[in-house]
Write a structure and sequence with these properties.
Elements (H helix, E strand, L loop, with lengths): L1 H18 L9 E11 L24 H4 L1 E2 L5 E9 L2 E12 L10 E13 L7 E14 L2 E15 L4 E12 L7 E12 L143 H11 L3 E2 L6 E2 H16 L6 E5 L7 H21 L7 E5 L12 H7 L2 E5 L3
């Protein structure tokens, strides 16, 4: 009667343990039914132990005939619950009759054990072979006398299909009471997996369903294909509009190789550089944003060309002389021709200055200045530079200052005649670049002069 009560107690504990774990994975439960064998021989029990001495560790480990205690019945029931990352937790109930401990044939007592274990599968994925290790503890009764134990084991399961497999496992059980026997327990049995869930009811278990909460098709891993284009919605950039695999499931209405979802002009064939829009005038602005789609122009002017009133190739906004044609090098203003500059220099050479002075001499010089002003009036937007020179009389510093004053004197004279002072700049070169021989009076007279050069607008 005492043994029956113990068995009932162990069963109740097993059921309580099993029902306390929440279901959180597909086919998470495994029940193992099988036979167990108890072997105390290869446990290195010393002679000081009441059951010692026994064989060395793992000695005659598979000597089933001489050392194993086996009942020809289902004597082990195990329940395991998958947690995550290969880990599971479970319990195991075992019954046996001990008739031999090593080579000792005198024992004759009952054996009951309840073990709680943590299992770690060593293989991830869908392999049929499933090696594992176990760690746990339990309570073992020898003819009604109980003792706690520490358990360490390993095993191998082979899954015939998704629900049925065969298993073998062995565990060393280290007992802590003197009436207990340290031993190995071997279990052979059939393993049954169950508890599979199909949340979306599409016939594909959540375990294998890549879209477990949305009904789909088996060929798409349980995921739907709403638009029927052969691309699962989870991989389809346009799940509600049929398209091609090349377009990631999206349509390409204008056939320009850019899917409609990425095409700024889905009904007009264009280029990838223009986000799927055309650019007929090649100005880099797609036609939907181009105010002048047939004329190239900058984006700053909405794709239209800037106006160029004098047609000199310089846009009015950059043209200092928008109504007079001129080169870009002179900001769109006309440049005084070299022939005119030569004429100015010829005239300018006739302007005379007193020695060591910037004062312009004679009526002839005034006539020359009037003629120079008239020539400049023919080029009203052109810039001109008055260059002053001196003879070698005096020091270089003095002559440099004198040349600058002579150039300024000519500018003032031209301004007095009505020339635009903003068009005229001056520079002095001192006694540099002489035209005459400074060793002669006539040469020095020639070197007291002004010349003209083209300025930049």
């Amino acid at each position: 009667m005492k043994t029956i009560k113990q068995i009932l107690f162990v069963c109740a504990m097993t059921l309580a343990f099993s029902s306390a774990t929440a279901q959180d994975a597909n086919n998470p439960w495994v029940i193992t039914l099988g036979a167990n064998a108890i072997d105390a021989y290869p446990t290195n029990l010393p002679s000081s132990d009441i059951y010692g001495p026994q064989g060395k560790w793992f000695s005659e480990f598979f000597n089933t005939k001489d050392h194993w205690n086996i009942l020809p019945a289902v004597t082990t029931i195990g329940v395991n619950r998958f947690l995550s990352d290969g880990f599971s937790i479970g319990g195991r109930l075992s019954l046996n009759e001990i008739t031999k401990i090593g080579n000792d044939r005198s024992p004759n007592f009952s054996y009951q054990a309840l073990d709680l274990i943590v299992r770690r599968s060593l293989v991830k994925g869908t392999s049929a072979w499933d090696p594992f290790v176990e760690l746990g503890g339990g309570y073992t009764w020898f003819s009604g006398d109980g003792t706690p134990s520490f358990n360490l084991g390993a095993g191998l399961s082979y899954w015939i299909n998704d629900n049925v497999g065969i298993t073998y496992q062995t565990a060393y059980k280290h007992t802590f009471e003197t009436h207990g026997v340290r031993h190995f327990q071997h279990v052979f049995g059939v393993a049954l997996k169950f508890g599979g869930i199909d949340t979306d009811g599409d016939g594909v278990y959540d375990q294998f369903d890549e879209c477990p909460e949305v009904a789909g098709l088996e060929e798409f891993g349980g995921c739907p294909d709403t638009d029927g284009d052969g691309i699962a919605d989870r991989d389809d950039a346009c799940p509600e509009a049929a398209g091609s695999a090349e377009m990631n499931g999206c349509p390409d209405t204008d056939g320009d190789g850019i899917s409609d979802i990425n095409d700024a002009c889905p009904e007009l064939a264009g280029t990838a550089a223009m986000n799927g829009c055309p650019d007929s005038d090649g100005d880099g602005i797609n036609e939907k944003d181009d105010a002048c789609p047939t004329e190239a122009g900058p984006i700053a002017n909405n794709g239209c060309p800037w106006p160029d009133s004098d047609s000199d190739g310089v846009a009015d906004r950059d043209d200092a002389c928008p109504t007079l044609a001129g080169p870009a090098s002179n900001n769109g203003c006309p440049v005084i021709p070299d022939a005119v500059i030569a004429e100015l220099n010829t005239e300018g050479s006739m302007i005379r200055f007193r020695a060591e002075s910037s004062t312009i001499m004679g009526e002839e010089s005034q006539v020359v200045l009037a003629k120079i002003k008239s020539i400049l009036d023919s080029y009203p937007k052109s810039q001109v530079v008055v260059e002053g020179y001196a003879s070698s009389d005096g020091s270089k510093g003095y002559n440099q200052k004198l040349s600058e004053e002579r150039a300024a004197s000519v500018k003032d004279a031209l301004t007095a005649l009505g020339a635009d002072t903003g068009r005229i700049s001056t520079v002095g070169f001192g006694e540099e670049k002489p035209l005459g021989d400074n060793n002669r009076a006539a040469g020095r007279k020639i070197n007291r002069r002004v010349q003209f050069a083209v300025g930049k607008n």
